Amino acid sequence: MSIKTIILAAGQGTRMRSSRPKVLHEIANKALLQHVYETSLSLENNQIFIIYGHGGETVKQTLSSLDATWIEQKQQLGTGHAVQQAIHHVDDPDTVLILYGDVPLLKAKTIQTLLHKVSLTSLALLTVNLDDPTGYGRIVRDKDHAVVKIVEQKDANEVELQISEGNTGILACKGSQLKQWLSRLSNNNAQNEYYLTDIIEMAVEDGLSVETTQAGSQDEVLGVNNRSQLAHLERVYQLEQAQTLMEKGVTLRDPARVDVRGSFAELGQDIDVDINVIFEGTNRIGSNVKIGPNCLIKNASIANDVEILANSVIEDASVGVGSRIGPFARLRPQTELADHVHIGNFVEIKKSTVATGSKINHLSYIGDSEVGSKVNIGAGTITCNYDGVNKFKTVIEDGAFIGSDTQLVAPVTVGKNATIGAGSTITRDTPENQLTLSRSKQLSVPTWQRPVKLEK
C-alpha cells in the first residue's frame, strides 16, 4: 500500500497569543509538528507532505531537517482548501492520510488501525467521545448507527449540538475518491471556508461506508489551541515516558516529577531517580546508578554504580564506573571521567579528562585539562585556561596533590607525585616528587595596632 500523508500545519493559532507559529511550540523540547512527523515516519511506503501557512518560512526553516515535501497554503481558506494544495502529488491508487500538526500525541498504532479500514468502498475516520464536545464537529449517524455526515459547531442545530461524538479531523481514503470530493467542495457555510469534513457526506452519497475507529484516550487526539492545552499534553506525555521507564525497571521516586525530553540509548538495571530530574538529548545510563533530586542529565554516558547527588548538571560528558558527582556539580561538554572519580560540591569541569581514582571535591574550576590518576585537587583550585583570546591546556600528572586556593596558569604541567602548596599561583612546569609553592613570606608585625573609630 502506497501512503501519502498530508500534515496540515498552516493554522495561525491566535489563542496561543504568541509570535511563534503554533506548530513550533514544544512538548518535551520537540515541536508539535515534529512529533506528528516522526509518528507518520514510522509508516512503511509513506511519503509526507506538510502544508504550511502562518509563519510558514519560520516553520520550514526551523524544521528543515524533516524529510518531507513542503507546500505553502498562501490563503487560509479552510482544511479542504489546504488538502487541495497537495492533491496533484496524489496518485489514484494511493491511500491518503490526513493528519494535523497540532495533534502531537497520536500513536502509530491508532493510525495503523485507521489505515486498515480504508478500501475502495470505505473511508476511514477517527472520532472521539467527549464529555464536552464544544468546538468539535459532530458525527451525525442514522438509525442504523452509520455515519452520514459531520456538522461543524457553528453550523450545528440544537439537536446536533447534543451529540457527544466529535470529529478529530484525522481520516484516510483512496486518492481517486479524494480528488473527486475535493473538486466538489463549497464554502457555503458560516465560516465561508472549504471544510474537509464535507467529504464525509459526499462519500455517503457516493455509496461508500464511513468506517470509524477511536484512539486509546481523548488526550491522544487532543489538538493544542492554547497554553493550557499545551501544558496539559506535556504532563500527559511525561507520564507516558515515566511509565515506560518504570516498565524497563527504573525506580522513579515520583513519576509525576521527572521529565524526559529525549531518548535513552541504554538503560541498565536498578536505576534510582529522585524528584525533578530532567533527561535531555540521548543518554546512556548503566546499572545501579542513583540520581539525586533536581539534576539535569543531557547527552551523557553514565557507567555502572555511579551516584549523582542533588542539583548537579551533566551535559555531553561521560562518567566512569563507581564515580560520585555532586552535590551542585557541573560537568560541561567534552568532560570525560574515568572510574572511581569524585567530583564534589560547586566543582565545574569543562573539556577535560580525569583519570581513575582522582578527587576534586570542593569549589574548583578545571577547564581544558588532563588530570592523571589518584590526583587530589584541593578546594578553590582554578585552571586559568584563557588569556582573553586563546585557550591553553593544563596537565596534572598521576599522584599529584594540589593544595587549596591554587591557580594553575596554563599552559602548565604539574609533574608526577608533585605537591603544590596551598595558595600558590603556578606559572611554570613543576618537577616530579617535589613541593612547589609560590607565595609571599608570612610576617607578623608586633608593633601594629588595629584602627579604632574616631570620636566625633
From TrEMBL:
Residues 228-248 are annotated as: Linker. Binds 1 Mg(2+) ion per subunit. It catalyses: alpha-D-glucosamine 1-phosphate + acetyl-CoA = N-acetyl-alpha-D-glucosamine 1-phosphate + CoA + H(+); N-acetyl-alpha-D-glucosamine 1-phosphate + UTP + H(+) = UDP-N-acetyl-alpha-D-glucosamine + diphosphate. Keywords: Acyltransferase, Cell shape, Cell wall biogenesis/degradation, Cytoplasm, Magnesium, Metal-binding, Multifunctional enzyme, Nucleotidyltransferase, Peptidoglycan synthesis, Repeat, Transferase. Its cofactor is Mg(2+). SUPFAM superfamilies: Nucleotide-diphospho-sugar transferases, Trimeric LpxA-like enzymes. Its EC number is 2.7.7.23, 2.3.1.157. In the N-terminal section; belongs to the N-acetylglucosamine-1-phosphate uridyltransferase family. In the C-terminal section; belongs to the transferase hexapeptide repeat family. HAMAP family: GlmU. Homotrimer. This is Bifunctional protein GlmU. It comes from Methylomonas denitrificans.
